[in-house]
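I am hoping you can look over what I have pasted underneath with an eye to the fold:
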Amino acid sequence: MIKVLVIDDEKPTLSMFRLFLAAYGYDVLTAQNGEEGLEIFKAHKPEIVFTDIKMPGMDGLTVLQKIQELGTSSQIIVITGHGDLEKAMEALDLDASDFINKPVDRQALDAALSRAEKDVNCLLPCLSRRPFVPAAMNLFSSCPAGLTDRHRKEFPTRLFSLMSPIRQ
């Protein structure tokens, strides 16, 4: 079962995430601030993390950076309030996996979860297959940690060389 950590200072938001994610079959962990979220992350190592950007104390961007410093491959999705698009772009520049806006729309939540889960599920095959296979599985989203720029660059060449016998 995939573990999901949700970090937000608003109790109603945490309740909504807990309800939806549990209904989807995820193991849900919640935290009301960045410090608590980081401690829960270290203890449980969830595969997916949702964090609000604006929180008192440790904000979501700091949470994102601290989780990444731990060398994890967890997918981190930032939650932004209305008008926080600049902060969301900053989070993406810091290698957040995705972002969703508040109030959280169920379709946006589903799409973000689907992309994150695809990257989580791609991680194990990435460790055991040839380098170009994970890139093929993950063509339209960011490649998981562990793939080098060389792998990303050679993927199109290898894909077309594999497909050429099919075309003939």
About this structure: The chain has two domains: 3-126, 129-168.
